Amino acid sequence: MIDTNGGLTQQRNRELLLAILDRQGLPGASDEELARRRACSFGRTDAGAGLFYYPRSFFRADGALFFIAGTEGVRKLFIVSRSELPAGFSGSRYSLAGLNVLEAGLSYENYLAAKERLPFLAPVSLRGERTTIGCGDRLGLAGPGHIRAARAYDINPVLAQQSIRELKLTGRSYPEVVKDAAFSVLQEGFDRGYGADGDHLKTLADIDVAVDAGMPMITLDLTEVMNPAPGDWNDQAVEAAFAKLPETVRARVLSDYAGRTFNLGGDPLTISALEAKRCGLMYWKALEFTGEVDSLLRKRRGDAYDLEISIDETTTPTIPSHHLFIAAELARRGVTVNSLAPRFIGEFQKGIDYIGDVAEFERQFIVHCEIAKAYGGYKISIHSGSDKFSVYPVIGRHTGLRVHVKTAGTSWLEALRASSRFDAGLFRTMFEKAYQYYPEALKLYHITPDLSRIPPLAGIPDDQLPGYLERPESRQLLHISYGGLLTDPELRPRFFGFLAAQEEAHYGCLQDHFRKHIDLLGVPRHG
Predict the structure, then answer these.
(1) What gap in Å lies between CA 450 and CA 444, rounded to an integer?
(2) pLDDT tens for each residue of 124-150
(3) Which of 37, 233, 400, 520 has its CA 20 to 30 A from that of 111?
(4) What's the CA gap between 394 and 403, in Å, rounded?
(5) How far apart are CA 52 and CA 139, in angstroms?
(6) What is the pTM of this model?
(7) Catalytic residue among 180, 221, 275, 308
(8) Contact indicator for 30, 48 with CB cutoff of 8 Å
(9) Could you give the 3-state DSSP secondary structure of residue 475?
(10) How far apart are CA 216 and CA 208, in angstroms?
(11) What is the three-class DSSP state of 338?
(12) 3-class secondary structure per residue, 27-44
């Protein structure tokens, strides 16, 4: 006997959805009318029977109406037209009530077809934008919350941001990261432009993969081509090693930097001959590689790319003379630098506030900002930038908001915050399992929490569980254990099922948390 209940329910939902659209006059609405409706709409509209749609997602292109809707927590791309449907999409095609309908999955292939009709779905270079924030999304579900936080401010979000490490731990790919961000953009009707960042990439091959997926921003991690060892060498060792460099390199370092004083707008900065030689030993090979990467990006994307230089993955802070050497050499080589991430004094650990002397951080940060202004005006980039609330006012003030703040794991923590509020059992299970996955995760991340300070969950009332998202130790435990938790066969379906059911709660946590970041930076609101 064939069970037709599912098919009948699906048919009824389709008919109900189209009846709602027709009653609102949406199939024939003009672009202007759709824009007006988007401006006064918010969130998701539930129409009963598990049917829902997103009022902000309605756009017209090629005579067809594009929007996102779904049933029972499964979102899909719908295209509705009174004439022929556009080609290039895969999905179910049918006709109802005089309308041709395409019901398509949120796949990368359908994203590629959709962005040809709705160009704002494709990520763009944000090099010309003053203030940007990298909104790492390890789940592929946080984009709407990020957009809701950013859209009221003079700030541009980089919605798709993942490193190779994160991709491996979550089982995702760059095409998946980009299409998830793009459909979030459609869902929220965000046509202002967003970025996508292949984060902490180290090889030309990985950069090509990210660019192939349409990512305009590349964060180049120079860890494997830098030579940090001379930073700790004595004078004799530096001199001996420098003498072995090619004569052309030695001549450039000595003539351009050794013993020279640079006026940056504040106090003058002098680079001693020894420090100049040390810089040549530490950075020359990395700078040569940076030139190769810049050439690759220009060849692949013309001028529409954002190259970020990352020198923050080191054990010691980037002193101003080294930052200046790097900046000057990048400028001399004609590298198009959008942003540069030094390793700042103090500790920028994952998921918690700044650890260190804020006054000393400010003193040194001012010099880093002066160097950036003197060598092309690139943005200073703040890595592990989430939750650094005590130094955001300093960062915003001295960069003049020409800054990129990079976050990642804080969005994952906000998903956990939602579970702590609305599904205590799920949160308790995930929290206890985090201890199981923590030792392996600790091999990949530099954090120093004392886990013994975390109170046991047993006996803690449910209404106090969100407090674990405020404690630095438990935040870091959860922050870095995401790989194991998200691939755990028991937890994954429960967790993603919860997020589908509590979508607005998830977005609300994200929106509130990111607004705190943006407000403390001093970013003005629109209007």
Answers:
(1) 17
(2) 999 999 999 999 899 999 999 999 999
(3) 37
(4) 12
(5) 21
(6) 0.96
(7) 308
(8) no
(9) helix
(10) 11
(11) strand
(12) CCCCHHHHHHHHHCCCCC
Max alpha carbon distance in the chain (Å)?
A: 89
In the chain, domain spans:
5-117, 411-509
Which one is catalytic: 129, 166, 188, 199? Answer: 199
CB of 65 closer than 8 Å to CB of 26: yes
Q: Which of 296, 273, 268 is nearest to 212 (CA)?
A: 296
162: its two tokens:
């993942």
Q: What is the pLDDT of residues 305-314, one digit of tens each?
A: 999 999 998 8
Alpha-carbon dihedral angle through residues 460, 466, 468, 469, given to the nearest 10 degrees: 170
pLDDT score, position 357: 98
- Residues 6 or more apart from 156 whose CB is under 8 A from it? 126, 129, 131, 132, 133, 150, 192, 193, 194, 195
Task: Tell me the helices (H) and strands (E) count for the chain, helix number first.
Answer: 19, 17
The rounded distance, in Å, linking the Cα atoms of 60 and 433 is: 46
Question: Could you tell me if residue 449 is left (phi over 0), alpha (psi between -120 and 50 degrees) or otherwise beta?
Answer: beta
In the chain the first and final C-alpha atoms are separated, in Å, by 63
Tokens of 203: 């090889």
Check residue 265 and report its DSSP letter. S
Q: How far, rounded to the nearest angstrom, does the alpha carbon of residue 315 sit from its chain's CA centroid?
A: 24
- Reported as a pLDDT band with limits 50, 70 and 90, residue 1 is very low
Q: What are the residues facing 80 on neighbouring strands?
A: 65, 101
Buried b (16+ CB within 10 A) or exposed e, 212-238: ebbbbbbbbbbeebbeeebbeeeeeeb
Per DSSP, the three-state class of 220 is strand
Q: Is 239 a catalytic residue?
A: no
Compute the distance between CA of residue 227 and CA of residue 277 in angstroms, rounded to an integer.
Answer: 13
Q: Among 193, 206, 198, which Cα is nearest to 147's?
A: 193
Helices (H), 385-502: 392-399, 409-422, 424-442, 472-480, 482-487, 491-501
Residue 267 annotated in active site = no
Contact 361, 393 (CB under 8 A): no
